[in-house]
Amino acid sequence: MKSLKMVMVKLMTVFMLIEVITCQFGFGFGADGGLNMNYYLMSCPFVEPVVKNIVNRALDNDPTLAAALIRMHFHDCFIQGCDGSILLDSTKGNTAEKDSPANLSLRGYEVIDDIKDELERRCPGVVSCADILAMAATEAVFYAGGPVYNIPKGRKDGRRSKIEDTRNLPSPTFNASELIRQFGLHGFSAQEMVALSGAHTLGVARCSSFKNRLSQVDPALDSEFAKTLSRTCTSGDNAEQPFDATRNDFDNVYFNALLRRNGVLFSDQDLYTSPRTWNFVNAYAMNEALFFLDFQRAMVKMGLLDIKQGSNGEVRDNCRKIN
Ligand code: HEM
Ligand SMILES: *[C@@H]1O[C@H](CO)[C@@H](O)[C@H](O)[C@H]1NC(C)=O
Ligand SMILES: *[C@@H]1O[C@H](CO)[C@@H](O)[C@H](O)[C@H]1NC(C)=O
Q: Where does the record place the Plant heme peroxidase family profile domain (predicted)?
């Protein structure tokens, strides 16, 4: 009897240990649609440091690429799910997503290529381009001073990239209600949509994205700031206007700009005009920690949009081409 009890106790201990390990290392399945935090633990253990090093090196060289990487991940996820399709080049018979006018000056493809090359040397055929992009965006947020967070991995790469699919992207002329509706189709609440818009704490918009607000000055726009935007546009459609005063810093200055009616895009400023969203803008302007928390949660969620798994996808050899 006594030995049976000992065996039971030992078994219990083993089970508890297994549970601790699975929770600790995120081997659990289900909650993240089958992805997990340590998907590459055995197959490519250095995947995260490799991504981090190459992203850091690229951003040391050009800090404006942080915005580019985050935006690229967003576009990838909103068009046919986070499946690396934004990375595919057009071919003879097919115009890819990236060549749509809505590519809106996406940049940073070389950073993804560099990471892929290094990972192919270390663990060929293992790490998907969709995961690389998701990890690169996470590192970019952290590099720019934003929250540090871990994302589940195991996305497969898609085989489709078509210019017409870019219709799913929100337009800078959308009002808050339209933004709520469109993000709602992807399963986001109004508050999550506002938190995600906070990515505009980084980077720039080109004149072509906001000049419609200037010919007949948008009443939601501060009159001094309208002059600033007009001055930017004297250099042409591609002239760049930073979203806020700290274009390379991930902070809540963007939300404070909205409070002063200094939002660059109509879609930014309307978040503070609309009674459906203005309280979230206010909260994030007052409390950066709250913005960081909501942003990281919403980014993890965005990274799970319509992911492809198993035979639904592949691990591309080259992020620009299907196998
Ligand atoms: C809420 C709806 C959104 C709209 C209407 C929108 C629209 C735009 C537009 C028009 C630009 C400027 C493009 C140009 O003129 O070249 C831009 C830039 C940017 N967007 Fe958004 N966006 C939205 C949401 C997001 C989300 C959810 C993210 C990421 C999580 C994001 C990240 C960025 C970044 C980082 C830039 C700057 C890119 C750079 O400097 O290279 N945006 N966005
Ligand atoms: C974006 O699309 C335009 C055509 O609308 C194309 O000329 C440009 O090369 C594209 N940019 C990228 C980075 O693919
Ligand atoms: C938002 O835009 C839609 C479509 O243009 C329009 O029907 C709606 O009235 C607008 N809402 C507000 C509050 O302006």
A: 34-323
Q: Quick one: pLDDT band at residue 310, thresholds 50, 70, 90? A: confident
pLDDT over 80 at 323, yes or no: yes
Q: What are the strands, taking DSSP E only, across the chain? A: 204-206, 240-242
Number of domains in the chain: 2
Give yes or no for residue 104 CB within 6 A of ligand 1. Answer: yes
CA of 17 to the centre of ligand 1 (A): 45
Report the residue among 171, 173, 174, 175 best suited for mutation to probe ligand 3: largest number of ligand atoms under 8 A from its CB.
175
Q: Is 186 a catalytic residue?
A: no
Give dist(CA 87, CA 113) in Å, integer: 9
- Binding residue numbers: 76, 81, 83, 85, 97, 170, 200-201, 244, 246, 251
pLDDT tens readout for residues 24-40: 444 444 446 679 999 99
- β partners of residue 94: 91
Evaluate whether 46 touches 39 at the Cβ level (below 8 Å): no
Residues 146 and 56 occupy one common structural domain: yes
Is there a single domain that holds both residue 151 and residue 58? yes
User: Does residue 319 lie in a domain region?
Assistant: no
Domain check: are 165 and 48 in the same one? yes
Residue 128 lies in a domain: yes
Residue 271's pLDDT is what? Answer: 98
Beta carbons of 114 and 97 less than 8 angstroms apart: no
Q: The pTM is what?
A: 0.90
* Residue 182 and residue 162 share a domain: no
Active-site residue, selected from the candidate residues 52, 71, 73, 75: 75
Q: Distance from CA of residue 287 to its chain's centroid?
A: 21
User: What residue numbers bound the domain in which 152 lies?
Assistant: 26-169+303-312
Taking the centre of ligand 2 as the mean of its atom positions, its distance from the CA of residue 103, in whole angstroms, is 6
15 within some domain: no
Is residue 161 domain-shared with residue 186, that is, in the same domain? no
